[in-house]
Write a structure and sequence with these properties.
Blueprint (H helix, E strand, L loop, with lengths): L7 H12 L10 H20 L21 H15 L9 H18 L30
Helix pairs in contact: 1-2, 1-3, 2-3, 3-4
């Protein structure tokens, strides 16, 4: 299994698939791709400014080409882009797309966080409870 980066065109096609506007086996039209393509750059910029994730290269527009979208970010980013493009397809009120977009953004936050962001707080041994299995006595201070 290869971890080759995905392209902008792959992202557009996956977002169209998430929108559910294509019939099985139907190829997306240039107009459909253009509607999704118009929201990619602004939405990726918003994700960067909101400190969700930084993507260095999502490809170019007119025609959509290139891109170095990491495989681990691809599906979540496609979900976010699908929600951003929903108004262009008269799907702005679709709650399932909203949830899909929110979950995608949360997933991108998880992917982008530092590896050891949840460390256990170490406490002084003198303040630790003695005899973990039995309850202590409040009156005796144990």
């Amino acid at each position: 299994m290869t971890d080759t980066p995905k392209t902008r065109l792959d992202l557009i096609d996956r977002a169209l698939e998430n929108l559910g506007i294509l019939v099985e086996g139907q190829a997306p039209t240039a107009e459909m791709r253009q509607k999704v393509d118009r929201v990619i750059d602004p939405r990726v910029a918003e994700l960067r400014v909101d400190e969700v994730i930084y993507l260095a290269d999502v490809g170019t527009t007119n025609p959509p080409a290139g891109g170095q979208i990491p495989v681990e970010c691809f599906l979540a980013l496609a979900d976010v882009i699908a929600w951003a493009a929903a108004p262009s397809f008269s799907l702005a009120g679709d709650p399932s797309l909203k949830v899909l977009g929110d979950l995608g953004e949360d997933r991108l936050r998880t992917i982008a966080r530092p590896p050891k962001s949840r460390r256990m707080l170490r406490t002084d041994t003198a303040t630790r409870p003695q005899g973990r299995g039995r309850p202590g006595s409040f009156s005796r201070g144990t």
